[in-house]
Amino acid sequence: MESLAQLEALCERLYNSQDSAERAHAENALKCFSVNTEYISQCQYILDNALTPYALMLASSSLLKQVTDHSLALTLRLDICNSWTYCLLSYSLPKMDFKWIP
């Protein structure tokens, strides 16, 4: 993948395209993120920097698959958990309504 913007566009096609051939192409191009452990750091980068929910979905589901399918070191598992938690909080907190706090 040449850029994050290209990856985000491909993720949007994966989840939104009405054309099954286009979805299949996107799925094939993005499969490496969920099956190859060398892409874990790129998934974490996507979690930290992506702007679209489709790219965040790809990265989080790929990391979940990596953690459940492979025997990863505990420190790497914790790092993945921290990346995911940070992503969730940074994406969700700005949208939360804190008017109930005095």
TrEMBL record:
Recorded GO CC terms: cytoplasm; nuclear pore
InterPro entries xrefs: ARM-like, ARM-type_fold, Importin-beta_N, XPO4/7-like
Keywords assigned by UniProt, alphabetized: Cytoplasm, Nucleus, Protein transport, Transport
Residue span(s) of domain Importin N-terminal: 26-70
One GO-annotated biological process of the protein: protein export from nucleus
Principal place of residence: cytoplasm
GO MF term list: nuclear export signal receptor activity; small GTPase binding
Pfam families xref list: IBN_N
Superkingdom of origin: Eukaryota
Subcellular location: Cytoplasm; Nucleus
Similarity comment: Belongs to the exportin family.
Protein name: Importin N-terminal domain-containing protein
Gene source species: Rubroshorea leprosula
